[in-house]
Amino acid sequence: MTDEATAKRDFMRNLLEARVLLSTGVRGVYGRGSAFVDVIARVQALIDAISSRHGAERVSFPPVVPRALLQRTGYMESFPQLCGSVHAFTSGERRHPALLERVNAAGDWTEFLTQTEVVLAPAACYPLYPTLRGTLPERGALFDLCQFCFRHEPSDDPARMQSFQIRENVRAGTPDDVRSWRAAWMEEGRTLLESLGLRLVLASASDPFFGRAGQLMKANQQAQELKFELLVPVWSDAEPTAVASFNYHQEHFAHLFDIHTANGEHAHTACIGFGLERIAVALFKHHGLDTGRWPEPVRQRLWP
Amino acid sequence: MTDEATAKRDFMRNLLEARVLLSTGVRGVYGRGSAFVDVIARVQALIDAISSRHGAERVSFPPVVPRALLQRTGYMESFPQLCGSVHAFTSGERRHPALLERVNAAGDWTEFLTQTEVVLAPAACYPLYPTLRGTLPERGALFDLCQFCFRHEPSDDPARMQSFQIRENVRAGTPDDVRSWRAAWMEEGRTLLESLGLRLVLASASDPFFGRAGQLMKANQQAQELKFELLVPVWSDAEPTAVASFNYHQEHFAHLFDIHTANGEHAHTACIGFGLERIAVALFKHHGLDTGRWPEPVRQRLWP
Fold this sequence. Notes:
2 copies of one chain form a homodimer.
Chain A: H1 3-17, E1 21-26, E2 29-32, H2 34-54, E3 57-58, E4 64-66, H3 67-73, H4 75-78, E5 85-88, H5 96-104, E6 114-120, E7 134-135, E8 141-150, E9 163-173, H6 175-194, E10 201-204, H7 211-223, E11 227-232, E12 241-250, H8 252-257, E13 259-260, E14 268-275, H9 276-287, H10 296-302
């Protein structure tokens, strides 16, 4: 086991012993104890202030999204390994005993189920774009949303959960509006997280595109500076952990969902997202398990 | 179409036109517009006040729970038709093209997926019980949690979503403590919802147990008064809609998960839950689509 893997495993044990996180028995799926819930609520309040100042409209989507949406956006081409598809028992009473026998044998129930119309949301902003079809107001549009997202990557890393919350803001408008909005958030996000005592690096980044074909997508994304991340050295300086991302989609979603600016062009869109559990884990790792003993400036900022 | 079905369909159209709810194209899966998000946040704040006064500890679980938990609690015996099971693509690049072909044909992907260790949470409190294993403090335990739950029952009824939030409180302790706590919440919950201008009925109720064997379970639950519901006549007086439930589990969960009181007996547990979307839909139905024109006493209560 590498030093880093040991560090992750040991810190996870500490988080569980202190009931900061609660074990469910599944890797990457944890309950949140009261301290963890409180820290996330306070970080959210700090993000609230920035989102409100920008004038973002609060909307919300459930943690499942239409399966047809993933097809439309090409998600299964780029990230098939991360998707959680939802299946249900739609047979009648006649097949129920056989299903139960399989359930009680702790076997695989797949053959008794059919695929539903929904999958787990992989990001907060996907279901928003289809609702923007048409022509945007003169100044474009700006939304604030938060959602439990799912990515199937079981791991012992406390900062890589399978089910986690992303607080996102989404901007749609002209290329200039969208780019300057993203640039402002990169600064404001950095300032916010630095005020919590985290040491940060801003870096150009890419998404975990699947397979060999994905390598080209990654290179392209990096070359065009479409994605930036704020990273914190939670486990090591060599492999810091991304806690926020700033993503410019150009006309991608506007083409897919027919979204136009007031001047008739395809809109550009961007989203910024904070990984709330990753930020909380970074804070507990850096400042300790007892929030009562966190540095006074950090406490002042979170609990003013 | 019955009058009631027409009323539901027409009101759903009104909610979508006013962007109180946002269509995703899947029945029972909706985005929440800013007014709906705000109403739910304000109702939550009113529940916060009662939970805090009781001294409940805030915890949180993600919208997926271990599949083994449903097996352990017998969920698939009682409610197999409601469960959402999560499946993922775990094959390598070789099977990816065939998966994509199926995805793009809008076919069923099941044969390319394997069942994961998680299912969608059917209620907020299930994952809490295993974390209580052992001996409770002298006064028992009390928790406050909120979660997106999933029940596979596609419907055009705005008050019957597939993915919806339940705000729950859970009490574990002696039979007396648990019963008197549930009785207090029945009164407080009723007072809270009446102060929002809703007309309520409190009634003994049962869960939607599956199949013919389920009829006996329902009768037993009713005879022992294990479940009460607060109901609002959203669509009709004849079939009012449950917006809150008050459930006494006796020793059921304590037996399953070895939870004991300080005096060594198996603990009793109860949970109370508010259906947040149902409360919001009832408010929009009763007071109108524009919250700015809701009755002044209701506005004062929600936005003091």
